[in-house]
Design goal:
Strand order of the largest sheet: 1-2-4-3-5-6-7-8
Oligomer: single chain
Shape: globular
Distance between the termini: 62 Å
Helix content: 40-55%
Order of helices and strands: HEEEHHEHEHEHHHHEHEH
Number of strands: 8
Number of helices: 11
Length: 309
């Protein structure tokens, strides 16, 4: 009988600490689950640089803020910002709807792979049209200045309304397809605003064909001035000197044809003028399965968490 009692006592001595540990883990997990998710907000920002959307001088701006952004203990904390440009056809909600941006960023941050950051997705359709392919450029006629809209008005709004780190070293501009092109084109024009570029399935020569024609026009000098590959190829001059402080992460699917070829060409051209460019070619088709993976790898490379740098 004493042997049974001793066995029960020994069992309880082992069981109780284990239960306490399990309870602590469960409590910790529950606490983590309530605090690990970032927030999504939609702002309407005013603009004087692009034409009205159905008569209204404002634009959608989808914003992800990381876990803990609104916690009292982080009230003075500032964060790097990633500006993501959608493709065509597309809109500011694409990264959330198709790329599950909030889920992806929550996981990357929770896993300690990416530094907590603010993610911003603006609307880049001209005149509010669903297929208003702006190419994210300033139009030759001056009616729409999407290039300046992003680099000036969107960045200015974020820096004045959110706790951003307001310097190029902490700003990444990225995008998919048309947005991948736009990100590179804008960064070339504003290296004093953006310190890193994340282009996913972008193109780097713009001939103004297809949906781009209404915005780009026919003037070859304008097309050349908005073709990043043309702008930098074989030119180590004042225009390209400022780019040496900008980091580039260029990704594409292995079999995306023109996108793949131009991404490789642009990476090589950047390296020839001394610009840091990482080329990431992976299996995948032109679409969100590919872009979600490239976005994950690009953020890990350009915004590594402390300790992974």
């Amino acid at each position: 009988m004493r042997k049974i009692a001793d066995d029960i006592s020994t069992f309880l001595m082992v069981l109780v600490p284990c239960c306490l540990i399990l309870a602590a883990v469960t409590t910790s997990q529950a606490k983590s689950e309530t605090t690990m998710h970032g927030s999504i907000d939609v702002f309407r920002i005013p603009t004087k640089l692009v034409r009205p959307v159905k008569g209204h001088r404002d634009r959608d701006l989808v914003v992800y803020t990381p876990p803990g952004y609104n916690a009292p203990q982080n009230a003075q904390t500032r964060y790097p910002v990633v500006y993501l440009l959608h493709g065509s056809p597309g809109n500011a909600f694409n990264f959330l709807k198709f790329g599950e941006l909030n889920v992806l960023c929550d996981k990357l941050i929770a896993d300690g792979l990416v530094a907590p950051a603010i993610i911003v997705a603006p609307d880049g359709n001209y005149a509010g049209e669903a297929h208003g392919d702006s190419e994210w450029v300033n139009s030759p006629d001056g009616k729409d200045k999407f290039d300046e809209f992003v680099a000036s008005e969107v960045v200015g709004y974020v820096d004045s309304h959110l706790r951003s780190l307001p310097d190029p070293q902490h700003r990444v501009i990225g995008g998919v397809s048309e947005g991948g092109y736009g990100a590179a084109n804008i960064a070339l024009k504003h290296p004093n605003v953006f310190g890193a570029v994340l282009s996913m399935s972008g193109y780097f020569t713009n001939d103004g064909s297809g949906w781009a024609r209404p915005m780009m026009g026919h003037d070859q000098s304008w097309l050349d001035a908005n073709s990043p590959l043309t702008v930098i190829s074989g030119k180590a001059n004042a225009t390209t000197a400022g780019l040496r402080q900008v980091r580039f992460f260029l990704g594409a699917g292995l079999h995306e044809k023109t996108y793949t070829d131009q991404t490789k060409q642009f990476a090589n051209a950047l390296k020839l003028i001394g610009v840091d460019a990482k080329l990431d070619l992976i299996t995948g088709k032109h679409g969100w399965l590919l872009w979600t993976q490239l976005l994950s790898e690009g953020l890990e490379d350009l915004l590594p968490a402390a300790g992974n740098q």
